[in-house]
Amino acid sequence: MTDATLHAGQFATLLIMAVALGMDAFSLGIGIGLKGIRLRDVLRLSTIIAVFHVIMPLGGIYAGHFVSGLLGHVATMAAGVLLLLLGGHMIYSSLKGESVQSIDYRSSVGTFLFAFSVSIDSFSVGVTLGMFEADILLTVLLFGFFGGLMSVLGLLLGRRVSENLGGYGEALGGAILLIFGLLFIF
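Structure for Putative manganese efflux pump MntP, as requested:
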């Protein structure tokens, strides 16, 4: 394979993962949007979520580099298992109806708790990507952009549609991570 093919494949993988991780922000954004949210709050909350979608995977990538050095050749299997567990948890949570929608996003502490809660999955995926020496700048830019974009879309869409779409969005994101986990293992 040529370098261009490898870079295109890595970009496509990171793009799909960024969208999958943004589904959590999207689905929970719908729940908040259903309760009513001002446009100024949509912008504020989405910006903070985007920042967390940069910080969390960045920390995860550095942790992944460390873990990769410890695990050596077992890192690929560990990364695949981590994605399987994360994807399965996202699907389980969405089907069970668990969410953090009770957090008051209007307060500073609530905003940060909400942003942290929808970005924590990015840390785990960052650990996996760190084991594979993924492009750090491309990863954090894609994750941040799609974390912010998906939260804006969820918040705005929540103002107009039913609550059922949110759970399906998170389940879809979990299914995508499950597929990548299986690909890494096999």
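Helices lie at 3-35, 39-71, 75-96, 108-131, 136-158, 164-185.
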